[in-house]
Design goal:
heterodimer; A: alpha+beta; six-stranded antiparallel beta sheet; B: alpha/beta; seven-stranded mixed beta sheet; 9 helices; globular
Chain lengths: ~375, ~290
C-alpha cells in the first residue's frame, strides 16, 4: 500500500524527525492561507499524488509570494498531472502540500528496503541525492553505500555512524544524521514498511539535516496490525475496478488489452497473459480468483471484466487438480447468466470429472468455446476477437 | 532416490482446520506417513486416527516427526514456523499465504546456523511421486520418474507437471518454493540437491518476475549443474511497479524483468521456453523422447 507524501511526513514528525514546516491544502485559497501562516519569502507547492517523478511533470513549484502560492495551487488542483510513472492519462491532483522553502547546501539520499536474497532489511545511503537512485546505481555505483540490518538488533549506532562517514558531510552534522538514520529505521520497522525512501535528505546552509521528500510503501500482509496506516488509504488514487476487486478479495490488475482473463493462481495468471501475447493479442487484465476458483469468485470476476469496456472476449484458465470440473462448469454457467456476459468466453479447465464439465458447457447453448489445453485456449480466444 | 520427502518422511500437520485436515487426508491416501497434528488447545484429541498435540515439541517427542506441513493463518504462521524449528524438525513446509514480511525476516534470522530447511511460505509444498506428498498439489497429475521440478508458483507448476506426465515423463521430486519476497529454500539450494540426486536426470525451473532468484539460479547452473534444464519465466507481459498477485512478483526500479531473467538463463545454457505450453515439449526434446 502507498500513501501521500504529506501523510508520510506526518508519520515521520511523530518520531521527532526534522521536516520543513508545512500543511496540506485542497483549495487555492487554503494554500494561500497556509503560506501566510508559515510566513517567510519562499514556499514550495507540491502536488500530492502517489506516483513518483512529480518534479519532471511540473508538480513541484517554487513560489516567491503568497499570491504565487495561490497561482501554483490553481495550476495544480483539479488538473491531471502526468509524470513518467503515471501513464499518459495522468493522475488528478486533489491536494497540494505547501511548505516553507529552505536553503540547501547538500543533497543526500537515504533508503530502507528489504533485501530479498539475504532476507534482511538494508539501509542505503548516497552523497548523490536528488536524482533517482536507479540512475545513480547505473552511472556511479561506487556512490551508494549499504549496511545490512539484523532485524533482531535494528540499525545499530555504529552502523549508522559508518554510513554517515560515507556522506562527506561536516563533523557538526554527523551525529544528528546518524540519529536520524536510526529513527528512520524505527519507522520502517514499526510500520511494516517495504520501502522508506528519503530523496533528497538535505543539509541546509546552517548545517541542519531536513527531509524534503519521503516515499513510503507498506506490506499489504501486515495491514491487519497497522490500523493507522490503513486509515491513510486514498481510494481516489486507485483504479475503480481494482478497488471493486479488492472488495471481492480478488487479485486484479487492469491492463490495456482486450482479452479478459480469469485464472486460478498468480503464476498461471501471468503465464496466461504471456500466452495471449504470444498468440497475437493483449490481455485486458491480470486476475487471480484463488486456487479453489469458487463459483462466487468467478461470478465477481465476470462483473469486473464486463465493467471494462475494452474486453471483447474472455479466457478462463483454471487448473484445479482437486477441483471438480462439473461443479466448476455449473458455476461458470450461473455466472454467465447472472452477469449477462455478451462476449465470447473460452474455457480451459483441468481437474477431476473434466469430461462431465466440458459436456455441461457444450450443452449450455451459450457462447462458450471449450479449449483442450492452454495453447488451444489462447488460439481460440484470439480467433474469437478477430471474428 | 528423490529429494526432501520420501518413505522416511514422518509428517506432522500444524493447523488441523478444514484445509489442514483435508490435505492430511490426501497425504495419507497417497501413502505418506502422517504421524499427528498440532493445534494448541486440542492436545489429547485425535484426528484421522492420529493424535493431536498442544505443541510441536510434544508431538516430536511422541511421534518422532521429522517434517511438518503448516496451514496456520498468516498472522500466526511465523510463530508456528519458529515453534517447529525450535522443536528440531528438519523440514518445515509452510503453505500459508499472507505472512507479514517482517515476521519472515525474524524467521530467516532465527534459522541462521540451524540444521533446518524451510520450504515456502505461500507455496504448494513438495511431492516425490510414488513416495510421499507434503503439500496441496493434486496427486493424480504426477508420475514417478527422473525430472526434478522447482517453481515459485502453484497452479503453473501443476500445468508444467501435467505436460510432462502427458508425454510419459515422470518426476523425481516437485518443489514449490513459494511466491513471497522473503522465504526459505531457494532455487540454488534446490538445484544443488537435484544435481546430487542420482535419480534426477533433468530439471524444470519455473520462475517469475521480481527479485533476482532466477539470475542467481542461472549463475549457479552455469558453474555447478551438469544436468539439462528447461526454464520458463511467468510475467513477460507484466507492467512494471505492479504486484502480480504474489507478494514477490513485482518489477521494481527496472529490476526483476522477465526479459533480464530469460537472458541470464539462456546465457547459462538453460533451454528457455517463451510459451508456458511448451515446457513439456522442450523437456521431451532434451531427453530425446519422441511424442
Amino acid at each position: 500500500m502507498k500513501i501521500h507524501e504529506y501523510q508520510g511526513k506526518e508519520i515521520l514528525r511523530a518520531y521527532g524527525i526534522p521536516l520543513p514546516r508545512g500543511e496540506v491544502a485542497s483549495s487555492p485559497q487554503a494554500a494561500r492561507r497556509v503560506a501566510e501562516t508559515l510566513g517567510g519569502n519562499r514556499w514550495v507547492v507540491k502536488a500530492q499524488i502517489h506516483a513518483g517523478g512529480r518534479g519532471k511533470g511540473g508538480g513541484i513549484r517554487v513560489a516567491a509570494s503568497a499570491a504565487e502560492v495561490e497561482q501554483s495551487a490553481v495550476a495544480l488542483l483539479g488538473h491531471h498531472l502526468v509524470t513518467p510513472q503515471t501513464g499518459p492519462e495522468g493522475q488528478i491532483v486533489q491536494r497540494v502540500l505547501v511548505e516553507e522553502g529552505c536553503e540547501i547546501a547538500q543533497e543526500l539520499y537515504c533508503g530502507l528496503v528489504i533485501d530479498r536474497q539475504f532476507g534482511q532489511p538494508l539501509c542505503l545511503v548516497s552523497p548523490v541525492g536528488g536524482m533517482e537512485i536507479e540512475a545513480v546505481a547505473t552511472t556511479s555505483p561506487d556512490q551508494i553505500f549499504r549496511e545490512p540490518i539484523d532485524v533482531l538488533l535494528g540499525l545499530a549506532p555504529f552502523q549508522a555512524r559508518r554510513l554517515v562517514e560515507q556522506l562527506k558531510v561536516g563533523a557538526a552534522a554527523q551525529h544528528e544524521l546518524s540519529l536520524l538514520l536510526q529513527k528512520l529505521y524505527h519507522v520502517f520497522h514499526d510500520k511494516d514498511c517495504t520501502l522508506l525512501e528519503i530523496n533528497p535528505l538535505v543539509l541546509t546552509t546552517t548545517g541542519t539535516p531536513v527531509i524534503l521528500d519521503v516515499k513510503m510503501q507498506f506490506d499489504d500482509n501486515a495491514l491487519f496490525r497497522q490500523p493507522d496506516v490503513v486509515a491513510l488509504r486514498d481510494l481516489a488514487e486507485e483504479d475503480p475496478l481494482e478497488v471493486e476487486a479488492s472488495q471481492y478479495k480478488l487479485n486484479y490488475i487492469k491492463l490495456s488489452g482486450n482479452i479478459g482473463c480469469i485464472v486460478n493462481g498468480a503464476g498461471l495468471a501471468m503465464a496466461t497473459m504471456d500466452i495471449i501475447k504470444l498468440a497475437g493479442a493483449a490481455p485486458a487484465n491480470f486476475l487471480d480468483v484463488g486456487g479453489g476458483a469458487s463459483a462466487e469468485a468467478v461470478e465477481n470476476a465476470f462483473r469486473l471484466l464486463m465493467a471494462d469496456a475494452n474486453v471483447q472476449a474472455v479466457l478462463i484458465n483454471v487448473f484445479g487438480g482437486i477441483l471438480r470440473c462439473d461443479v466448476f462448469a455449473q458455476g461458470v454457467l450461473q455466472a454467465v447468466a447472472k452477469v449477462q456476459v455478451q462476449v465470447p468466453v473460452v474455457v480451459r479447465m483441468e481437474g477431476t470429472n473434466v469430461e462431465e464439465g466440458r459436456q455441461i458447457l457444450a450443452e449450455s447453448g451459450l457462447n462458450l468455446l471449450i479449449a483442450a489445453d492452454m495453447a488451444d485456449a489462447a488460439y481460440k480466444v484470439v480467433q474469437a476477437i478477430q471474428g | 532416490m528423490s529429494i526432501l520427502v520420501d518413505q522416511n518422511t514422518r509428517l506432522l500437520v500444524q493447523g488441523m482446520g478444514r484445509e489442514g485436515r483435508f490435505h492430511a487426508e490426501q497425504a495419507i491416501e497417497y501413502g505418506t506417513r502422517f504421524v499427528g497434528g498440532v493445534n494448541p488447545g486440542r492436545g489429547g484429541g485425535a484426528a484421522l486416527g492420529r493424535p493431536l498435540f498442544d505443541s510441536v515439541a510434544k508431538a516430536v517427542a511422541d511421534t518422532g516427526a521429522n517434517t511438518t506441513l503448516i496451514f496456520v493463518p498468516g498472522p500466526f504462521a511465523a510463530d508456528a514456523i519458529l515453534e517447529a524449528m525450535e522443536a528440531g524438525i528438519g523440514l518445515v513446509v509452510c503453505i500459508t499465504d499472507g505472512i507479514p514480511i517482517r515476521d519472515m525476516l525474524v524467521v530467516r534470522r532465527y534459522m541462521v546456523g540451524k540444521k533446518v530447511l524451510l520450504i515456502g511460505p505461500n507455496c504448494p509444498g513438495v511431492i516425490s511421486p510414488g513416495k510421499a506428498k507434503v503439500g496441496i498439489m493434486p496427486a493424480h497429475i504426477h508420475q514417478p520418474g527422473r525430472v526434478g521440478v522447482v517453481s515459485r508458483s502453484g497452479t503453473l507448476t501443476y500445468e508444467a507437471v501435467s505436460q510432462l506426465t502427458a508425454r510419459g515423463i515422470g518426476q523425481s521430486t516437485c518443489v514449490g518454493i513459494g511466491g513471497d519476497p522473503v522465504g526459505g529454500f531457494t532455487f540454488v539450494q534446490c538445484l544443488e540437491q537435484f544435481q546430487q540426486d542420482p535419480e534426477t536426470a533433468a530439471v524444470v525451473l519455473i520462475g517469475e518476475i521480481g527479485g533476482a532468484a532466477e539470475e542467481d539460479a542461472a549463475a549457479y547452473i552455469a558453474q555447478h549443474v551438469t544436468k539439462p534444464v528447461v526454464g520458463f519465466i511467468a510475467g513477460q507481459t507484466a507492467p512494471p511497479g505492479r504486484r502480480m498477485g504474489h507478494a514477490g512478483a513485482i518489477i521494481a526500479g527496472g529490476q526483476g524483468t522477465a526479459a533480464a531473467k530469460m537472458a541470464a538463463m539462456e546465457r547459462s545454457g538453460i533451454r528457455v521456453v517463451h510459451s508456458p505450453a511448451s515446457i513439456g515439449e522442450a523437456m521431451a526434446d532434451l531427453l530425446g523422447h519422441t511424442t
